Amino acid sequence: MSATHRQTLHEVRTGETIDGFVVGKLLHEGGMARLYKATRRGIHTPMLMKVPKTGAGAPAAALPALENELRVLQRLHGPHVPKLFGHGDLRATPYIVMEYIEGDRLAQAVARAPLPIAELANLGAALCKAVHVMHHQNVIHLDLNPRNVRTRADGTMVLIDFGIAHHASLPDLIDAAFGEAAGTAAYVAPEQVRELRSESRSDIYAIGVILYLLATGRFPFGRANLLSVKRRLFEPPLPPRLHRPDLPPWLQEVILRCLEIRPEHRFTTAKQIVHALTHPDSVHLTARAHRVRPVDWLTRLRLWWRSLYEVFDEAEPVRPFERLSHAPHVLLALDLPHTSEPLKQALRVTVRKFARNEPHSYFTCLSVMRPADRLSLRPDEPSASAAERIAEMRTWAQPLHLPPGRISFHVAEGSAADVISDYAHHHVLDYIIVGAQGRSPMGRILGSVSARVVAEAPCSVTVVRPRELPKAREEHPPVTKGD
Question: pTM for the whole thing?
Fold first, then answer.
């Protein structure tokens, strides 16, 4: 093609007005793109314009990455992704204008790591919730790191930079164009090193790296280089407790499970990590939790040998949304002091069926205490402490024979419907199981709870009622007429 007919791309500069967007000052220049402040009449939300590098010496991946990010952002929605305001013609003036989120709480936390356990758990849970919502929309980020996570004023985590992300319902532009695309070296999962881009649990691995950093202030394999990237194919990371002896075993269990070499040995979903970080007593401890030294040389040799022929490809790739349905989180709302024996049995039957049909499901038993429950108002009204409520729930659940990692028990105080609804929203539940109370005065109160839960819950709700036996017909004595 001659120079007179060759199509050239316009590179955006500060001070220009393009499609109504005024290009402001340069905020950041990365390897493949520049970020500018942007404004437009009538839009008061802070915005930035992302412009790919297209001049001499620009990376070949820059333009396809911008196109890929645009396609992903057009299909994502919700508070955990930046709002998309516009884009240019990718053939002439390529750019994307999106919401600008200034907060970088996660990156700041990494800079002052190691963190207190409570702060680490809160940050990790917020991050995992954002990743869960993204996976629910069939997107795998593949470049999760603290720089690609922003924070809204209310603490909501926002994921950015979807340039190498994979959407399970779209052709893979990155893979088709270049054959491979890895993320930030320190955070890439072993299967990404082997060029697999369709595994949602690669993001779980990156979460593990971030949690490791927050807990210890160090990377699992040291500073990123070719050797550290290759080592993750055959060597488990040093246990965090080696760097921080006071780290709770449950947290090391969570971190090292995220960092397992094989994806199937990690958490299945980010939502499971949310549950583990917010319910430490529910974490089932394995040998991972108690490691305090590196693995021995014989184990490393065996893992290295296995890595030479190890294959990560799945026979049929599982979409992120489909994988979420494989490990549903179920809330079981229990009020055992006011529950009849037939209803207790019916609830057990329902849970047993669910656990059998969904082998990777996990259950949270929640009992909500009203303030009046702390004081016995009448001699016949049961009054129990939170510890006694938990003990009662454990006794009720014992016949289910669920392992500790699949069931946990919690007590909260307040309005039952409000507590259940808040828990469902905060923990992104999949199902709620609640019992239908009888016709007693207490039953009428609790019955309204189940109705409100059904109306307000963000997930499916099963209301369990015991089967009533038909009433026996009343027999009347024969009537004898007088003479």
Answer: 0.84
